[in-house]
Specification:
alpha/beta; binds magnesium ion; Rossmann fold; 6-stranded mixed sheet; 274 residues; binds adenosine-5'-triphosphate; globular; 4-stranded antiparallel sheet; 36% helix
Length: 274
Amino acid sequence: MQVDELSASSMCELMQGLECRLCVQNLSVYYGEFKALEDVNLMIPCKRITAFIGPSGCGKSTLLRCFNRMNDLVPGSRVEGSILLDGVDIYSEKYDLTELRRKVGMVFQKPNPFPKSVYDNVAYGPKIAGIKKKSVLDEIVERSLRRAALWDEVKDKIYSSALSLSGGQQQRLCIARVLAVEPEIILLDEPCSALDPIATQRIEDLLVELAGKYTIIIVTHNMQQAARISHFTAFMMIEKQGDPGRIIEFDETSRIFTNPENEKTERYITGRFG
Ligand SMILES: Nc1ncnc2c1ncn2[C@@H]1O[C@H](COP(=O)(O)OP(=O)(O)OP(=O)(O)O)[C@@H](O)[C@H]1O
Ligand SMILES: [Mg+2]
């Protein structure tokens, strides 16, 4: 679907009855004077994987970071428009930021476990949330590691340093750390770009499995990855040098990769630019 058709009603039609609790409305993002993103309108379907693709610098990470207000940490950054979660604007003053960060977890490009044990990495969030009882924490740690498809590999060394794990294991540990606080939405910014193909495959399998339970948004440079695992894809780009990034087309992934409406999308996915 082309950007000028991304109205609320056409978006609802596209979602075909899928529940959408996350809705981006007329979002623009600035870093100081610089406008990085303009007029983004998007609905994110629940319990599905949505991918953001597009050339470097078009604002994919910027958009992703808006969903848990990570951009707030950048001095001089500013957001116009709104992101509604269950009908409430996460940018409104009354929105509880701690609650938002619990509901919306994030996994980064490079695995970034804390220099602590595997156990402590996963137990960290629940402890901050006030859970003290060892038996409860043990249960959460095991459950989260199982959900992240890591338990079998680490069950005999959960008190060893997380830094002793392989890159792929560290990334699954970071996913387990997010799962431990029972989020609803998981944001991933190029989570496999530092991983080899086998570790990548394991993360992809895991994300597909997790999508039954969580709403997942992934930024990826790997178009095969987007095509393989995501249900919906937003193609973003900067149309003219100096312009802000925009969403050019948003649709079901199969459509974006087989029969896109916009020729710019087609040029990008066939590797003719970007
Ligand atoms: N912290 C920041 N301060 C100032 N400008 C920023 C900041 N982060 C991003 N930008 C600018 O915003 C624009 C979008 O950047 P962003 O990182 O969102 O792009 P991207 O699509 O994720 O790129 P890539 O694929 O290379 O990761 C770029 O022009 C970038 O230089
Ligand atoms: Mg990025």
